[in-house]
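Supplementary notes for students who missed Thursday's class. We covered one full example, reproduced here. Read the sequence, then the structure, then the short commentary at the end.
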Amino acid sequence: MEENLESKLIKITLKELQDLELYQILGEKLYNEVEEEIKNKIADPNYIIDSEIAVLLNRYIKDFLVYGVLLNIPTSLNYKFTNKGVKNITDANSTAIIGGEIENVKRYYRAKFDSYRLRLMVFVKTSCGVGNTSIAPYSTGWYLPNRVNAQKIVTARANKLGRRGF
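Structure (token representation):
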């Protein structure tokens, strides 16, 4: 990311991530604890953040927010809504968008974001004992139940694939 990105767009994207994603993962109580620790640190640079909150912030939330911004900001950086339609913004000019060109970038960051999101959710669930108790489905479309029924899987595969030379 370049240093001269519009801070307004970064702030809006961070706010969306905090409200729509992070709050849902942490739950109200833990989210408020993290927020309070950050406010205390801003108010007093000598304030020492609680060690558990510091681990959560530095090892999980930070990466989650970075890749969340990288995933969500390309659209607002590259496109502008005008009275003549949606335009693609470049340094030299603006042109009409070509469908799907930004999707490659978003797919790249979606994989990273989903990994950090899962890592954060697992940490909150196992280490903090709070937060959202269910792990939400991901954009990949995969659903993995808590217990794998190996017999059911083998039976389903056998019925679908046949014996295949056994």
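Commentary. The two ends are 55 Å apart (CA to CA). The longest helix spans residues 7-43. If anything here is unclear, bring it to office hours.
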